[in-house]
Write a structure and sequence with these properties.
Length: 168
């Protein structure tokens, strides 16, 4: 049918507004993604991808606020040789070693909240764990970390040790 006068201009304007709206919504989603990434990085260790000490403390705090008298265990898993390994082999190797250690611990942690607490320590918070469950878990962590870390040209012993704190 016959077109109304000015409909072409209106279409152009709608297209520009459409493009502008599209660009704006893309910008908003890009900002949201960046914000989520920053939030993730703030609470996570960049080497292992595990939650960091700050996130672990927040999770522990939250659990204790719910019920301060609740049964729980906190395991600290240290790798005694790591400082020496960093000094002799460097951070690139120690980072790969910590990634490997985290990958070994994760499947065992189960419901436990596992985090990288310090350069050479992991923490695992076990809500509602009994003393014997905590000890059993600690022994399994030591067992998986007792297997040396291997790369093509060398093998490194991790010398794992676990400390247990029980609540209440």
């Amino acid at each position: 049918g016959p077109e109304e006068p000015g409909s072409a201009a209106r279409t152009d304007r709608d297209d520009e507004l459409g493009q502008l709206a599209g660009a704006f919504s893309h910008m908003v989603s890009t900002l949201r993604e960046r914000e989520a990434r920053i939030r993730h990085q703030a609470g996570h260790d960049l080497v292992t991808g595990l939650p960091n000490r700050m996130a672990a403390e927040a999770a522990l705090q939250q659990a204790l606020e719910v019920d301060a008298s609740a049964r729980a265990a906190l395991l600290m898993i240290g790798l005694a040789r790591l400082p020496e390994i960093i000094n002799t082999m460097g951070h690139v190797v120690s980072d790969r070693l910590m990634r490997d250690a985290a990958a070994r611990l994760l499947p065992i942690a189960g419901d436990g909240f596992i985090a990288r607490a310090t350069d050479d320590e992991f923490s695992v918070f076990l809500p509602s764990a009994t003393r014997s469950e905590a000890v059993r878990m600690a022994l399994r962590f030591v067992e998986v970390l007792s297997e040396p870390y291997r790369e093509a040209e060398f093998t490194l012993d991790l010398s794992p040790a676990v400390g247990i704190a029980l609540s209440p």
